[in-house]
Each structure stands twice: as structure tokens, then as C-alpha cells.
Amino acid sequence: MPPIRPTTVNQLAGDEPALGLDAPGPHAARRSRSRRATLQRRLLAGGDAVGIAVGLAVSLYAFGSHHHADDLIAGLVTLPLWILLLKIYGLYDADGKRVSHCTVDDVPWVFHAMVFGALALWTVFRATPLEKINLEQFVAFVITGWVCVLLARAATRRIFCALVAPERVLLVTDEPLATLLVRKMRGHPEYRLAPSGYLDVSDRPGPPVGGEVACLGRLDDFDAVTEEAAIERIVAGPSLRQTDLIDLVRRASARSIPVSLVPSMVDVLGPSVEIDDIEGITILGINPPALTRSSRGLKRGMDLLLASTAMLVALPVMLVVALLVRLTSSGPALFTQERVGRRGRRFRVLKFRTMVVDAEAMQQSLRAQSGDPHWLLLDRDPRITSVGRFLRHTSLDELPQLLNVIRGEMSLVGPRPLTVGDHAQVSEWGRRRLDLTPGITGVWQVLGRARIPFDEMVKLDYLYVTNWSLWGDVRLLIRTLPSVLRRRGAN
Description:
The protein is α/β, with parallel strands linked by helices. Helix content is 50%, strand content 12%.
């Protein structure tokens, strides 16, 4: 195989080398990976120190300490211990171990660390001549420090992404899976993965044939490709034979390149899979979903509390939106449509009207222009009004669905509520997605809304239901706002 020119690899990855990273070449990947990890840990530690310092200052100055400067200096002296505590909690190593790790994943661990550290700091202040920390200062420090640390972590991750180019990824799989993985990586730049191409492991005879994704050779070319392209991560598919996979992992480990494995049962696995072992033999536990009565009660309680509060807060905005809809186009302010709910029960979903009144009658004539055969997906839908386009981009048209949530027909987080016609296209196994009540937001909303193909949306909803957890719902709620602000996949 002829050597790969570094410029070609950079063009395939879509990024030039950024600050602090080496250009492709022998041993460059190991150096850049080490610098990447060091820079990220230092940025996170610096952000954590700033967040804790701000939290300490706010709690001391806002709640009546008479010796602000002395107490603040004493608290700042403990900052190295705070960094050590967060290191013990694993908050500086997770980014390098997981591709999809983000600040939302740090929320529970940072809170736990703040409570533990604040208790230790309270003990220090009690055991020294310093002024004692009262309850108000303690609570203020935990909450303010928690919020400030999370904000600082989000900011430092954005700074890191601006300074450092994405990881150069080599796929070791067959062409169909390589194409799918590349599409997902390029569609979600937040993963910071730049696919350089793939090594074909299929059994077809003759030289490898490149399709949409650049084929860089066969498995025998692994050493040459990883060196010349400065590969920083390997993603291996399930089509690899076991002996080849073992050899691949050993060769990648010798070059300090992490390997991510795509399991053969990718369509049924999810984040709730338990990693277990039997006398050192690793096994994956795929447990049947058990949504107990208490779990459903917690989910419903969270829905009622948050939806009622949001309804009260958003009421003035909803009145203004309703007025704008009525003034800019003929027809009612609200649009209702029959959707399929939990266990197949029908309900009327509420939305602000974003289309002309006879939009549904025009649907069949526009079907030929659709970008998806399962539902109507248009780059520029002529039925959408000017105000409706703004409402869809900002998701304000979905505010009336809070009433659906209060009535129990929908949830804040859940599978996508489909029309009767769309639901009829879902295969039998996919209808398991309706074991939970449809949601205003969900995995489909966070990952791309209309950009996600119909079949993939069904799989995502299925995985959401079979891997449900209350923290998963909270995580999706937190991630919804940035997705809406970025207008990701708005149709």
C-alpha cells in the first residue's frame, strides 16, 4: 500500500492540526494525545478552582461574615485539596475515557463532592480561630459552588474544543457500518471525532473499494495507516473475527491508541447494560426493563411539578404567541392533531398553529419532495407561516403541550408522539417504545429532531424505554435547551 500523505488525511478528517497538536507523522498521535489529555485536565482544574473560589466568596460576603478577607484567604488555601477531591471523584479522567462525556454527566458527582468538601471545610473552620461557618453560608457555598463549577467546566470544555482539533479516528469495519458511523460523527461535532477513513474487514475478494467513506486499505495495513495518519482512536465494528480483534487491541495498545468497540447487538444495548464478570470473564448484563409503580410515580410527580411551574411562568409568553399567530394568518391560534399515546391510546396533541389552515390537505401533493419516505420532510415547507417558522426554530409552538403533560396524556420526556399514520409504519418490536408516555422532548429532540431518519428514531425511542431512569430524564431535560438554542434539526 502506498504511504498516505498527511494532507490527504487532514482533508478527510475535515480539520487542520490545531494549537498544541502535531501534524500527522510517526509517533505524532501519542504526543498529541498526551498533550490533549494534559491540557484538558489543567483547564478543568483551573475552572474548578475559579468556581469554588467564587462560591466561597459569595457565601462569606452575602451571609454576614465580619472577617471576609481572612476567611476567604483561609478558604482559598484549601483549593489544592479541592482539586485533589475532585480528582478522587474521577472528574478529570472521564473525558478521555468516554466519547460522549459532557458537563451534564458531571452534575451529580460535582454536587456530591461539593457537599463532602463543604462539610470538611466547615470542620476546619470549627477547629480553628476563624469565624465559624453558619448554616446559611454552608448551604450558599454548596449551591453556588456547585453551579459555578459546572458553568466553569462547560466554559473550559468550549475553550478546549476551540484550541484542540478533534481526535483522528480510524474505523476498522465494513463499508456500510463505516458510512453510518462517519455520518453520525460528522453530524455531531460535539463528540470531537474526525474520521480519517476505514480499513475494510469484509470477506469480499479483490482490492478494497471506497464508497462515501475513504477506504485506506485492509487490516494488514493497520501499522502503516496509524503511523502515517497519526490516528488517535480506533473504532472497531462487530464484523471483526475474534482473533483479528484480539490482535488489533494488542497492536493499538502498543501505540497507546484507545479502542472503542461497536457490539454486535448494537440495536438492543443501551446505557443501562451492566458490566459484570464470572471469575475474571467479562459479561454484559442485559436486564429486562422493570418500570415499577414507584418509578412511574416518580416520573409522573416530576412531570406535574415541572409542567405546572413552567405553565405559570410561560403563560405571558403563550398569550403573546397566540396573539401573533392570530394576527399574522387566518385561523385559530391552536392546532390539535390526533396522536398515539402510551399503550396505543389516542389523544389530541396541542400546539400553536405554525402552518396555513389547509396544511394537512396539501400533505399528499408534497410527498414526492420529501427527504424521508416515512414522513414528510422538506427543506423549505411552503405551508409554514413566517411566524410559524420562528416558533418551530425556537420550539415555542410546543408550549401548549404542557397542558397535555398536566392531563397525563404526555410526559416532559419520552418517546416521540407519532400520528396514527406514522405509528402504523412502526414494526411490532418498535411499538415497545410506547411502554412509556410520549414526551415533549426526548432522545430524538436532543440528537437532531427532523434530521434523524424514521427508522433510527424508532430505535432511539426503543432504547430510551428499555433503559429508562429518572436521572436519564433529568439529563435529557438539561440537554434540551442547548439543542433548541442551536436549532438542531428544526423542520
